[in-house]
Structure formats: C-alpha cells, structure tokens
Specification:
The protein has 548 residues and is α/β, with parallel strands linked by helices. It has helices at residues 28-40, 58-61, 74-77, 130-140, 171-182, 220-223, 285-295, 301-306, 419-437, 455-465, 518-538, and strands at 13-24, 46-49, 81-82, 95-96, 141-143, 160-162, 186-187, 199-203, 234-237, 241-249, 256-267, 270-282, 298-299, 313-314, 320-322, 326-334, 346-353, 360-369, 382-389, 396-399, 410-412, 443-447, 467-468, 501-503.
Length: 548
C-alpha cells in the first residue's frame, strides 16, 4: 500500500480510532496537559500516545538511584541519542539522554525542583509574563515545609509535593553551606520566589515523597496522569511511536490543506491511525517535537523537499535555536569516606545573577558520590561541585536525517560556539575553588586539579569533560508575532499557519530558563491546557469547571 502524499511504502492500517484530542508524548508537559483536559472536558475523548512503556522500575522509583541505572536497562527507557561532534568540545560526540517511558524525563531526572528566575519570562510573550504564569506554577505544587509556604508565590493544593527535606543538613552539607555564606553568597530560604540579591545560596528543593516513601520520585505520570487513567474519556497507549501528523487534502486540487485530520503511529510493528476532531498537541520535548513536525511536513521547506516529504508549512525555524545548559564538574577526593547518608543528592544550590537583566547566568551546586560513576569519570567517595552555564549564547539544531520515523535525528548543540559561554563556566570553576578553600580540611581537588590555573588550562579541561545537563529547549520557539526565521508557535502554543495543532513542552521556550527545566515544563503543560479549555469556552460548547 502506498501513501497518499509520498512514495513511502506503508503497511495496511491495522486499527483506526477517533479522539477529540491527541497528546503526543507522556512527558512532563504532556502528562499535566492531558490530566487537566481530561478532568475539565469530561465529554471529550483524550488519547495520550507514548513511544515508551512503563516507568515501574526500582531504579526509577528511588530517585537516589538515577545516576546508577543498570547499563543494560537504559535502552528500554531512553532514546540513547548521540550528538553530532561538538567543535567547541574538542570534536567530541556527546550522549543525549531523553527518556522513553511514561513520565518522560521526570522519570529519570534527579527531582530537583527549580523554576528558574522570575526575570526569565521578560523574553516570553506578554501572556507568559511571570505574573501571568505564577498561577500555573502554583497549580501544580504543594510546598510541604513551613518555611517555604507563601500564599503569594507558592502553591498549596497541587498534586506535586515540594520540599527541601532531602537537602540533608548533615555536617558535611552544613559546612559547605557555611562556606558559601563565608564566600559572600547570601543565604535565602526559597530560591523559587523572586529574590533581589546578586548571588545566593539555598538548600535544594525536591519533588519526592516523604515519610516511608521519602525516596520515591514524583514523576509526571505518577503524580498527574495516573489520576485520570481510569476515566472513561481517557486512553493511554504506550509503545506507540508517532510517524507523522496527518492533514486534510483539497478534493479538487489535491493540495494539502494545513488542517490536522489525524495522527499515524506504529505499535509493535503495526500501523494505526487516529482521526482527530479537535486538536493534536505535540509534547515530545525539544528533540522529539521538531522531529515529529518535520516528519509531518512542517519545517524548513528545502530540507523537507530534499527528503521527499511534502511541505505542509514552511517554517525554517523548526528545529533551530537548540539550547541546553552545559555542565562541568569540579571533583574533590574526600579525606574521609562518604557514607550512605550522603547519597548522591544535591544539597546546596547557588545562583549568580546577570546585573543587566537579573536572570541567573551561573548555577552551582554540590553533589556527593559514595559510589563511582565511570561515565562521568567519578570515583567513589568524591565530593563534586558543578559549574553550570545557564544563559548560553550558542545555539544548535535538531534536524531529521530521513523521512523514516525510526531514524534518529541529527542533534547539534554547537556548544561553546560563543566565547562568553566558556568564560562563564571558567568563572564558575574559580568561584567553586574560593568556596572550597573555606573547607580545605575536608577534600582535595583532583579535577581539574589546582595545577590548572590559567584561563586556557581551565578552558581545555572544560572542552575535554563538559557535558549537557539534559535540559534541551527552544527548537519550536514561541513568538508573539510571526517571523519566518524565528517562529514556530504563537503565544497560545498554536503552530503558525497550521490549524488544530499545538506544541507544549520545553521546545517552545523563547529563551531557555535559567534553572532546571522540569518545573517550567510542568507549568507549560498547565498553561497550554488552560488555553485549550478557554478556546472551547469561546465556541460556546462548555463552561469552565473548577479544575481550571
């Protein structure tokens, strides 16, 4: 059987479904989005397609094991991408971890709960200003600790429990916190509220369980989507890899009408189609979402035509502007063994602000390794402090290599293309050294080693060992007004020039947030769901329920 709109041979359709809404991807944004739609639009059928399977693994449930996943298990739960060679990192190929399971990357990250800076959103459309998204952050969370509770800035009724209980105030972490204070960092209680200080330190917040479940991660599937999976209007289909979004055709001219008609996916080698009444929302993340759009004919027309893909909408910005936070570890050998109480957890979080726009340009935090991690060149009983570039000027791309949905896309971060990015990480290393000097009796620096002092010596260390922190963003950029070279979605997450299609995940960020991206991805899912529900109200088809 042949496709209607290209020469790719297709399997017969094994099954055909009908849905009002299809969400592609059960990651952080997709789970929140699907849950809110299902709770509010109870008469509409919502289908969630997830390329991976269950996240019910012991090393997933216990978030302290996230860095120690068995190597033979990783291909089951991760796409295991590899980047293009990075010229700025001595031509190294880099691992690009993207989860392939329910919950997405919230199912194998370190559960660090960081909103970024309130000033990040000055670069987003007006309806995404900090004041306009604060309610969405509050919707998703309940802060547990009394010293974090704040009715103006923090949530108290959301399903995600947030606490700094796991930032163990043991002797070692307390000494590090004090060393930060002694080095000029202002100690604050809550870095997730707006703060005015130029450099701060604070105990890290986590989205994990408490009490007998104190190490159980609260991933997006378990915390959100599982609430509605047994509702009659919800269908979650796992092991379903989307091959393309389908569009209507003009009956006379046979031209493609840029209006979504359905979704095609493959499951266990069989081809399925879902006919869509209302909308498709792509939540595949900053790698998966542009890949799906390009496979569907939305992207750079010249590139798509070269692969034999019919162009639905020429959006050259699709897949471009890829950003990620680049991380460099400063490692110290402990003078005494680390014990199980130290785990592999982060304790103290530090931000340094850019005085020009008040965003955080540098993040640092400590992490302790009682066990070795060969992939990161970390030996047992190591005390690490991370220098993290938060505001990269360098940008890369995600680009499909063929018209086959089973082929990995080309991923090029273009790390350290801009010298300023390198300068920030070097600054971080030097700041870390000043802090560690206050703890001289505790540990000895082994990497890069105190014999490396000049800018070029530290730069070469960075080029040899730096790696992405796996916060990709920006490849389906959101803009308030349309620009062919910049825009993919509008301020309501709708793909420019395409009907019934939205994108909701970290790929829409106009500029990557200056902090870990999971909290903001959850917020994006909540905000996009509100917009969809509001659109339904405008059609006069429903009233807003209490779930909004």
């Amino acid at each position: 059987m042949m496709s209607d709109d290209n020469s790719q041979p297709l399997l017969p359709i094994h099954g055909r479904l009908v849905a009002d809404y299809v969400i592609i991807g059960a990651g952080s944004s997709g789970c929140v989005l699907a849950t809110k739609l299902a709770k509010t639009l109870k008469h509409d059928h919502v289908i969630v397609l997830e390329a991976g399977g269950s996240n019910d693994f012991s090393f997933v449930r216990d978030f302290t094991e996230s860095l120690y996943m068995p190597p033979d298990e990783i291909p089951k739960i991760d796409w295991n991408y590899v980047s293009e060679r990075q010229k700025g990192l001595n031509n190294r190929e880099l691992p690009v971890s993207r989860a392939k399971m329910l919950g997405g990357c919230s199912s194998h990250n370190q559960c660090l709960y960081v909103r970024g800076s309130s000033h990040d959103y000055q670069y987003w459309p007006k309806n995404w200003s900090y004041d306009n998204i604060l309610s969405n952050f509050k919707n998703i969370e309940t802060v547990v600790d009394d010293d974090l509770k704040d009715n103006k800035f923090r949530g108290s009724e959301g399903p995600l429990r947030v606490s700094h209980f796991h930032s163990r105030k043991n002797k070692l972490s307390s000494e590090f916190h004090q060393a930060c204070v002694d080095s000029g960092y202002t100690a604050i209680t809550d870095y997730n509220r707006p703060f005015e200080q130029s450099q701060i330190c604070s105990y890290m917040q986590f989205n994990v369980g408490l009490g007998s479940n104190k190490n159980h991660r609260q991933d997006a599937y378990t915390t959100f989507l599982k609430q509605v999976e047994n509702q009659s209007n919800v269908e979650i289909i796992t092991q379903a890899q989307v091959s393309r979004i389908l569009f209507k055709h003009d009956g006379r001219s046979h031209k493609i009408d840029p209006t979504v008609s359905g979704v095609e996916y493959y499951r266990h080698g069989k081809r399925y189609v879902i006919d869509v009444k209302e909308e498709v929302i792509v939540s595949g993340g900053a790698i998966g979402s542009p890949q799906i759009l390009q496979l569907s004919g939305i992207g750079d027309a010249k590139h798509l035509e070269s692969l034999g893909i019919p162009v639905v909408k020429d959006l050259p910005a699709g897949g471009k502007a890829l950003q990620d936070h680049l991380i460099t570890l400063v490692l110290h050998k402990m003078n005494a063994p680390l014990h199980s109480e130290h785990g592999n957890l982060v304790d103290v979080n530090m931000f340094v602000k850019n005085p020009s726009d008040q965003t955080n340009y540098l993040q640092m935090y400590n992490i302790m390794f009682p066990r070795p991690i060969p992939a990161f060149h970390v030996e047992a009983h190591t005390f690490g402090v991370e220098s993290i570039l938060l505001t990269p000027e360098s940008q890369g791309y995600v680009k499909i290599r063929s018209n086959k949905h089973t082929d990995d896309p080309a991923i090029n971060f273009n790390f350290l293309d801009k010298k300023r990015d390198l300068e920030i990480i070097v600054e971080g290393i030097r700041r870390i050294r000043k802090i560690m000097d206050k703890m001289g009796h505790v540990a000895v620096e082994v990497a890069p080693g105190r014999d490396k002092q000049t800018f070029e010596e530290l730069a070469e260390y960075i080029r040899n060992i730096a790696f992405p922190i796996f916060h990709p963003a920006g490849t389906c950029k959101m803009t308030e007004s349309f620009s062919k070279q910049l825009s993919v979605v509008d301020s309501e997450c709708r793909v420019w020039g395409v009907n019934k299609l939205r994108v909701a995940d970290a790929s829409i960020m106009p500029k990557i947030v200056s902090g870990n991206t999971n909290a903001s991805s959850l917020m994006i899912g909540d905000k996009c769901a509100e917009m969809i529900i509001q659109d339904r109200c405008k059609k006069g088809r429903m009233t807003i329920s209490s779930h909004l």
